[in-house]
């Protein structure tokens, strides 16, 4: 019997799988019977109009919400009952739609916070700052300084308080903190929101590097409204509207689907595009 090809293995064994997910707030269905497979190595984008359920979906994946029905699997294991920090330990990291940073702390200290789940030293060693703790500190600092700060090009602001930085740089810091977890799956919730054109180009480049460079090779879920960037970066695109899945396909398939155009443009504009 021949073994499965790499593509078949990725299809049959997705890194993340959502199975019949239902999430309601009162009588409002935020997610209705959602099924999704995210394969290792992909950039899998989630798009839809405002209120479609995108952020609710991300909150279910990283454990902020627990759906009323359905299952979520990460690397084949059911993670329904795991808390957000437990999912982080498994390798799921996230950035947020609105920047969540510690404004009074430096760039370096904000990023360092993402390494906490990798710290193994005990209370005594930590209190004395000796032995294992000191060695760990050197290793983690080296990783942050040589990998993350270099990747995101924030060397010049490493010792500045984050609250004093422009919004675009704060977005980089939040991304750096997520990368400090060394995730296998990175959820990016509108990473381009509020950025100017140059900052958008930089952030898109960082996302590609995180996904493609051998040092990282992080699978990404990208929630974004900038359709140009979504179509350029994505391997697959999942489309939501009012909590329902419209389709999940390649960027080319999504762009040519009338239901997707209708969800974004409305009936009259859809008719106009066909004339």
Mean pLDDT: 86
CATH topology of the domain at 7-91 and 183-192 and 220-275: Rossmann fold
Largest sheet: 6 strands, mixed
What portion of residues is helical? 40-55%
Shape: globular
* CATH superfamily placement of the domain at 7-91 and 183-192 and 220-275: P-loop containing nucleotide triphosphate hydrolases
CATH class of the domain at 7-91 and 183-192 and 220-275: Alpha Beta
Question: How would you portray this structure in words?
Answer:
- The structure is a single chain.
- With 275 residues, this protein is an alpha/beta fold.
- It has a domain at 7-91 and 183-192 and 220-275: Rossmann fold (3-Layer(aba) Sandwich), CATH 3.40.50.300.
- It contains twelve helices and ten strands.
- It has helices at residues 6-12, 54-62, 84-90, 107-112, 123-128, 132-152, 167-179, 197-212, 227-233, 251-255, 258-265, 267-274, and strands at residues 16-25, 28-38, 43-47, 69-74, 77-78, 92-95, 185-189, 219-223, 236-241, 244-249.
- The chain is globular and about 50 Å long.
